[in-house]
Amino acid sequence: MKILVINCGSSSLKYQLIDMTDESIMAKGLVERIGIEGARIKHETIGKEKKVTECPIEDHKKALKLVMDSLIDAEYGAIKSLDEIAAVGHRVVHGGESFSKSVIIDEDVMKAIEENVEIAPLHNPPNIMGIRACQKLLPKIKQVVVFDTAYHQTMPDESYIYALPYEYYEKYKVRRYGFHGTSHAYVAHRAAEMLDIDFDKVNLITCHLGNGASLTAIKGGKSIDTSMGFTPLEGLIMGTRSGDLDPAILPYIMQKENLNSDEMNNVLNKNSGVYGISGVSSDFRDIEEAQEKGNKRADLALRAYAHRVRKYIGAYFTELDHVDGIVFTAGLGENSPEMRESICKGLEILGIKIDTQKNNVRGKDTVISADDSKVKVLVIPTNEELMIARDTLKLVK
């Protein structure tokens, strides 16, 4: 069975065609700059030459038409007919409280996704556009939606409630939702396999560390707490996002800098994080390079980042009766031995020790903890597309 996975952004579209008989990628690609000058599609069928096509791409419907044409292209394609696609799995960022698992799309589901646009204005609209475009191009094929928030719907109410007047939760559903759920779920399943523990018995702390970053406490295979909140702004220091801060800072700076709420929101989401501290970049590779050259703000940004991650790991230990493993994933978590070492330094009190030699690895499933570490530490490259495909397969079967 072949499943197409679609991940729509506001001006981009990522896709993978996966053969679920062996979970192998048949083709993958990226459509960039949708609705913007210089639009293009980068397509690769595994085992064939990559193809890059620049052309006007007015909207997501045109983008998906290019994807379909690329998949069945006589020279560069992976399949002979679109009829070979059994189902399409879509990533949607916010499902609110409506969804605790993936679902087959119907109009009631679409209505629920649209109702959550208000609390995910940057993410849900392009997700909706992608689904609608796919429905028109592939009207006979089942479509499935996989929510980033769904995995965290198992959090108990003491984990997700905010200390605000309760009526704000009742009227506006202001609560912690958590994100990166598909990634946390994938690496948790993989960690359970690597540790030879039943998934419904495994306790983990998963660290999705990229430009966006979050930690999740997993008890018996279920998310019981996570660092992102009502939006993906809360929690860890990130590439350009502030993460946790004193809320009184906001009106103080707004008054001092004469900023309105939209401008302040822009500061928090796009001008803060390690970029704001370092003044160098939101790319950790650039910051690490500046640190090596003696840039003190770059050094501070990296130390502050590691410090915040350590704090959350320590906090989540108190929510779990034991911890089987700590998992590092996503761009920074998978590819920065230096950051992993920096985070774990100071966690020896919790029985966590990493082996420097084992830690010298990038983008590979492996255990990096020392032999005498009481808690296993793992590196697991995330694979959200495969998790989406697996969920899609279960539902359409």
Could you characterize what this model shows?
- This is Acetate kinase.
- Its main location: cytoplasm.
- Substrate binds at residue 91.
- The protein is α/β, with parallel strands linked by helices and 397 residues long.
- The protein folds into two domains: 2-147, Nucleotidyltransferase, domain 5; 197-379, Nucleotidyltransferase, domain 5 (2-Layer Sandwich).
- Helices cover 37% and strands 20% of the residues.
- The protein contains 15 helices and 14 strands.
- It has helices at residues 60-71, 107-115, 124-137, 157-160, 166-172, 181-195, 249-257, 261-270, 273-278, 284-292, 296-317, 330-335, 337-344, 356-359, 384-396, and strands at residues 2-8, 13-19, 24-32, 40-45, 51-54, 85-92, 103-104, 142-147, 204-209, 213-219, 222-226, 325-329, 366-367, 376-379.
- The strands form two sheets. An eight-stranded mixed beta sheet has the order 5-4-3-2-1-6-8-7, sandwiched between helices. A six-stranded mixed beta sheet has the order 11-10-9-12-14-13, sandwiched between helices.
- Strand 13 (366-367) and strand 14 (376-379) form a beta hairpin.
- Helix 1 packs across helix 3 and helix 6 packs across helix 15.
- The longest helix has 22 residues, at 296-317.
- The radius of gyration is 21 Å and the shape is globular.
- The mean pLDDT is 93.
